[in-house]
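Sample pair:
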Amino acid sequence: MYYFDHAASTPPHEDVIRTMAEVMAKHYANPSSLHRSGHEAGHLLERARAVIGAAFGVTEPKEWLFTSGGTESNNLAIIGAARAYSKRGKHIITTAIEHPSVYDTCLALEREGFHITILPVNEQGVVSVEALEQALTDETILVSIMHVNNETGAIQSIRRIGELLKQRRTTVFHVDGVQSVGKVPIDLQSSGIDLFSASAHKVNGPRGVGLLYIRDGIMLEPLYHGGSQERGQRPGTENVAGIVAAAKAFRLALESQAERAERMYALRERLLACIAEIPELVLNGSTNHAGIAAPNIVNFSYPGMKPEVIVHMLEKHKISASTKSACSSKSDDPSRVLLAMGASRERAASGIRISFGDEHGAAELEWLCRMLRMVVQKLKPLERKE
């Protein structure tokens, strides 16, 4: 099987699997328990926190919170900050292309009485920093913008946005970094980021483990109650085995980030050339690389054709691809992200996402391109004419 759906989830590294199995077998005690086994589990938990901090260049372990995944991290960051700072103001800014765990969460806060500004993006999927600046008011307490888009790979100008918001001590800056870790560089210390979300299963780690970086001094109102774990921000017995394995996955991903990006950009270049050779296919996003598009995600449409048909035909030839975000792929609606980029409803309803991983090379890309050409040739007589 040729698995080209790494933006949805990644196969765990063998070292990560071994680490998780070992910790599950030997360190099953509750890390909050007072006995020796509990202390050992707690030590592993804090060592994992330190490993993650060192990998990201944030040396203060207490600034890292463990969650169940990127969705929970985004919810805790947005709802927690909104409620914690609601006496200061009730204005939140986000963009039209955010992951549902950000976009829908902001809409839920709107029903609580918060005012939400949703910024548009250009046809490359990039938000204007100038538009953000104009949208800021004295009531703006939170800006939440993703680093890399999960459908198209568009990269936002996080450093420029962070520099802008540094001038406003009253506005918290949250970045959804779930798709960027290990692919696109990010400097948490100098980028002006207050809150940063990440997920282990996007970097060849286990599912069910997420991270939330909380800059020292930032307040969050907890979403849950019933325990003092994670400094009272996220009660419940910690998933020690998953967290230790996740720490290894994050460390490996960040250590090899530069080499991975270079290799994946070469694969992306080859896939873009392949798409350009098939007149029925239309690229969604930028053909440029540097600073605009992530190395591992390519999105294209076959207008007039249901994307599920293409996905299933590719699967018959051992290729796994996807439509839209995995969190919304079962919906028949056009992609909200592609619509925001100016695509027609027909084009936005036919998007296909290809996302690379560590196991891919030139041979895998050549097979993908060959099968794409064949599938399109077979489907041409079935095009919907609208």
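The chain has a mean pLDDT of 93.
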